Amino acid sequence: MFKLYPSRICAALLTVAFSLSILISFLLPIPVSVKAMLVILLVSALAYYLLRDVWLLLPFSPVAIRLEGQNITLLTRSSGELPGQILDDSLVTSFLTILNVLPQGKSWPRSVLVFSDSMDSQRSRELRVLLKWGGRGTV
Question: By the 8 A CB rule, do 53 and 111 touch?
Fold first, then answer.
C-alpha cells in the first residue's frame, strides 16, 4: 500500500496557475460584475482542488493506493475503497505521476496526482517502477 501525503509542490503550482487566471480576468474587457463572478468562481475552484488534491481533506480524497497488477484500489479519507483499472493514458515521471483510474461501474475516469513530495521517496520510486514496468503481484 502506498500512503499519500499533502503536496507543497502541487499547492504552489495550483496557487500560481489560479492567481494568473485571476490576474488575466482583471485584464479582460468585460463588465465588473462578470469579473467579480469569474474571480469568485476561480477562488472557489482553487479552494476545492486544494482541499481535494493537495491537503486530502475531503471525504473522497485518496489517501492511499493499493496496486494489484493493472488493477488499483484508491483508499479514501472516509475509509472507503474505490476499486478500478489504471488507464493507458496515465503519466509516470520522476517528478509527477498522474494516475488515470476508471472506477468499477463508472463511465468517467478519475485522476490522482502524485508529486514527488506526496510520498516517501523510496515508496515513490517503487510505485513508479511498478507502474512503468508492470510489476506482478500485489503491493
Answer: no
Quick: pLDDT tens for 39-79: 999 999 999 999 999 999 999 999 999 998 779 999 999 98
Distance CA 119, CA 108 (A): 26
- C-alpha cell of 72? 488499483
Distance CA 67, CA 84 (A): 10
Distance CA 63, CA 5 (A): 7
pLDDT of residue 138: 42
55 DSSP 8-state letter: S
89 phi/psi in degrees, rounded to 5:
-90, 15
Contact yes or no for 54/10 (Cβ under 8 A): yes
**Do 7 and 118 contact (CB within 8 A), yes or no?**
yes
Q: How many CB atoms lie within 10 A of CB 54?
A: 23
